[in-house]
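Sample A.
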Amino acid sequence: MAGLSAVDRSVVDQPAVDAHGFRTDGGVLDAIAGDLAGLVGRGVRVVLVSSGAVAHGRLLLHKQGITTGTVEHTQAAAALGQPVLMSRWVTALAKHGVRAGQVLVTADDFEHRVRYVSGNRRLEILLEAGCIAVVNENDSVAFDRMRLGDNDRLSALVARSLGADALLMLSVAAGLEDDSGRVIAEVTEPNDAARFLRSDVSDAGTGGMATKLDAAALATDAGCVTVIAGGHEPGVVRRVMAGELVGTVFRAAGDGGDNARRRWIGAAARVEGTVYIDRGAVRALRETGASLLPIGVVRIDGRFDADAAVDIAGPDGAAFARGLAALSSTDMRRTAGMTSDEIQRVLGVGFAAPSVHRDNLVIFSPTHPDTPRGDPPPADTAATHRPGHTEPSP
């Protein structure tokens, strides 16, 4: 892994509690802090994603005789535990002369474009100042329906948003293991590696090896080399970043060339509907980089306004792209299967926008973990549709 020795920016995912909810040994945190400080000293910009606030807070609540079980209990535990979690990292990093900046995020910070851009700039300022940004989900205000899900996914989203070169996810496991229990050194296709999964979701968090594989797929799709390694391995961060084969490495699948807007569309934007298209439109999007025109649209699922994020699926029902709708779901249904001339006769002269413009469109790589599967659209939904007919992109 010689390429990792030349990284410019990296994201490290390290929980501050073990799989059973107990505090990670202070010596382990100190060792990891030393490795992270070494990266900063080399000029690498480092983001640390660290969970454990809820687990720390629950321990404090239990000492007061309070049994946790409701959403409000979890939020209160997070409010109590986050200062403890942050204090541990501030102390550990200060021993090596590095400052830590706390960054708490929610799903809205990734799903809404303005907040996404602002949050990304906030991280950049901390990194420019030579600090390590310590990121965690703000569980004190999060509800299940608004959660990011787990810190592995969070670390991948942060890596994508920053255009990071490397993502290192530290785990209680030494890496992804094969059926005989040996660590697999390298994986080229994260989705294929799912066959090695076992039930290993931790007691303290929501993650496990399954979420790490999903995160690896999300990060490698954006051109970010990803490593899963044991957090208790001596010098693990330093050794991985020096190019040593430790744990399991997932090679980058994408080229990392997408701009920040496309990275947001592909991974973070909240999807509000699905647009089903014909085979000709699939070819036009995949092979020529065209915009999606109304004539290629077969069916719309969901209700959404213009500028909403939508998945785009072919005749097999599988989403292969995501984009920002140029039309509302109402107008997209009205114009499905129509040529530009027909649209202008129905909706008025000058109304000839594509359904999704190519500048706001991302084609998934084969490793993308957010590719949902669905049922093929019924044949009777395509009554006004001309199969295979496409128009040049505007």
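Sample B.
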Amino acid sequence: QRRARTRAAERAGAEQTCKERQSAYDRCAAALQESVRRMTAADEARAVLAASWKDWLTERCLPETLSPATAQRALQNISECVEQLDAMDHLKERSGAVRREMEAFEARQDALLSALGPAFPVVLGDAASGSGGTTDGATDGPEYRFAATDRLVQALAAARTAATRAAAMDDELPGLLEAEQAANAAIDRLAAERRELLEQGGVTPDLAEGEEPVAGEEAFRTRGVAHAERRAVLAELTPLEASLRESLQEAGHAPEGPADPENLDAAARAALEGEVAELQAALQRDADQEDSLRQQIGNANALLRSMASAEDAAELRAQEAAVREDIRRLSREWARHALAHRLVLEAKRTFERERQPEVIRNAGRLFSIMTGETYSGLHASLEDDSLRAVLAGGEARTPEQLSRGTQEQLFLALRLGYILSHSAQSEPLPVVMDDILVNFDPGRAAYAAAALADLAQHNQVLFFTCHPQTADVLRKATEDSAMVFRVEEGTITPS
């Protein structure tokens, strides 16, 4: 019985397996029939399409052996040719715009050089090597333009130096005028002191009419010497008089009062008369010398006044006039050079602003968005091909002068600008980003999300992040138009 039950179970299992296999066979047969039906329908559709394709080729006088794949490749080649032609037209437009800008710059440069006139020659050739050259017959071409620009730059440097010198001279002029006034005051004071000294010495400082000026100081010194000698003679006369009195007293003729010449003997009287005559002659000589000294001092005073009022003042006035003329001349030169400098800088800024590569223009626009318009854009310098960030006020900064966060914004803007430039020339490709805002603070992250939203207008952007707040920032920047998906355990579901 047990064996019978086992066999019955095995039989039931085998029947069940047969039923399952029969069911699978039936499904496979049905699928095969469906596949055959679909293949037949596909062959019929293919035959219809082939007939339509042949009719289409016949209508257009094309060979019937031309396959659709070959025609598709031909259309792709035609599309590429059209794109190349469009690119050539764009390059021609750019070339024409550059040529027009160059012509405008040359016109402004010619106008400036014409305004400066022959006093501002442009020398062709390498001045450093001594080759030299002139502008005769060569007022056009790159060499002349470069030489003219170099000449304007040199003139600008000279104008700056002249302006600095003029400013220094303007600063020194009040001091010189004050020094001149002080010198005139000192001359008047010394003249007054000299007059007072001469008057104290008994010398008249004024010149008599018709008298010639003489060395008044020397005459004054000579009169002083004569006055000292006179006092010395008077000092010698006093002891002689005392000695005479003593002699008279010893001889018994001592007078009760001053010595009287009537009481002297003949020899003493003759000696005294001789000494008196000599003293009177010396006094007369002193008086004559004193009058001569007075006259010489007066002549010297008049000469001093004429010199102070004529020569010194005339020299100072001549110096002042020369300084003022230098200031006017240097000011005019500075004005010309300043105008030339402004025109050159304006042309350079215009060229750098309008003729930047497309990558730099796109990157500058995105960089302005990322910085909240703190920076107006980017430009590559014509001088050294360096990249600079331009503030809203016009100041340019190199990447080394930017903060770490601003540098990261700059590098991200350059990458996005390259993507936009590439997309403009070919089929826009999806852009995949992996949490590139992780190092930005909330403010910079919001601005960067706005730039990514701008990029999403041209390219599909796939942004992966593990921070929910980053997804919120991106959703807010795109005004909830961004599609957010959540990836969990290999399953992607809309968020």
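B remarks: Confidence is low (pLDDT under 50) at residues 126-137, 207-215, 256-264. Residues 266-354 form the longest helix (89 residues).
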